[in-house]
Amino acid sequence: MTLGSDNEITLKANSFEVDVEEQADRITKENEFSNGFIASRRNLCFLKTYTIDPVDSMEIDDAISLENHNSGYKVWIHIADPTAFFELNSPIDKEARRRSSTIYLAEHTIPMIPIRISSRLISLCQNKKCPAISVGVLLSDYGEVISFEITRSIIKPRYCLTYDDAEELIELAPHEEEDLYKLSKILDKRRSWREKRGAITLEQPQGRFTVKDSKPQLTVIYPSRSRRLISEAMILMGSVIGEFGSSNDLPLPYRSQLKSSIPSYNDLRYINNVAIRNSAIKLNLKKGYLGSRASHHFSLGLDAYVQFTSPLRRYSDILAHRQIINFTNERKTLTYEQLQCLIEEIDTAQHQAITITRENQYKWLKIWFSNNRDCTWNGYFLRWFKYDEGIALLYLDELAMDIQTKIIFDQDPVFGQKLKVNVQNIEPLVHKIQLANINS
């Protein structure tokens, strides 16, 4: 998949090869599960299960529950199970592997799996019996994993919430609906446990462009307890799968990160803006990487970690699902070498998808600046991107995002230097925006 014209991207967003469409048609028509299929799975429909997603989400691939247990509470994390619907090397599987991930453009989405099965059949929809892979975890009062279980399940989500809905339930904690509040407190302890092991928490507003009526719309997402809850639950799932794989010598697509030398608290205490403080850390973090063998993940504070919770939009998660399912059913699994070859294949495609997304956001950033030439923005200098060409990386407060731009300074700026900028030039035929520092 390569980035071409807007028409080319739109075509790819709305079409799959004939054999993929034919398989999707068959799956759609044969969407009733047999009694034998349901009986082969753990029935977890009795749990009060929540999904929490953005208001416009079409693919719902994770859910959470809380179960009373003799020694406290068991946290359940449920992930949609696409392997129940299509097999390895089937047309849908091959196309998902080729695409490697869903691409979220400002204008539309390019799905990894045909949307009519990913959103309607595989997604964890409200009041529907759904196949899932579920992990139940007992945590200590300090957030350490005491025990866990992994099972293929049938669940029935009771509540389909937005992040705002969930935030209200966590904040108010009504007597009849306390589960999310309790889950939030339990997972806060889990995050504290990770932080004591060196995990780095970087929360800040995040800006992103979407398009409505052919015009860019800026959306800023702010940190919240509901988003923190889901993030920590997904990290917990990934750590449990990673620990299980590592202890059983099981090849999985482990996400790892080498130890990094980051600024100390004393180095950062003078920086008041949280986004700039986070940038000082991020600029020193080593890049994460995928590999078939377990290794430490520095910024998560975990000995082993596997991305497992987005199988509808990331193919490496499907690989992890298949390895776990085959191993627990005593079936043949991929070797380290076989899995590593697949990881390298999809990792290249995933990096290309990231580039497509980044360039698409930059395109609409240029249009945004063109439409707001008379405005000024508060920002901060982060680093030079291409010093000889005068291209720098800045953070703009109002947009809540980092941007690459040409800019001229009277003298070399330092990290975190405050700026006030406006548009000097937009070069439509090349990939460049030029801002002027009006503080100079």
Attribute tags:
single chain, 440 residues, alpha+beta, OB fold (Dihydrolipoamide Acetyltransferase, E2P), 2 domains, seven-stranded mixed sheet, five-stranded antiparallel sheet, 12 helices, 18 strands, disordered N terminus
Descriptive overview:
This protein has 440 residues and is α+β, with helices and mostly antiparallel strands. The chain has two domains: 6-366, no CATH class; 374-437, Beta Barrel (OB fold (Dihydrolipoamide Acetyltransferase, E2P)). 35% of the residues lie in helices and 25% in strands. It has helices at 6-13, 18-29, 35-39, 91-99, 115-122, 163-172, 179-196, 225-247, 265-268, 274-282, 315-328, 336-371, and strands at residues 42-43, 49-53, 62-69, 72-80, 103-104, 109-110, 130-139, 145-155, 159-162, 206-212, 215-221, 254-256, 289-291, 376-386, 391-396, 401-406, 418-427, 432-437. Helix 6 crosses helix 7. The longest helix is centred in the C-terminal third of the chain and has 36 residues, at 336-371. Mean pLDDT is 92; it is low at 1-11.
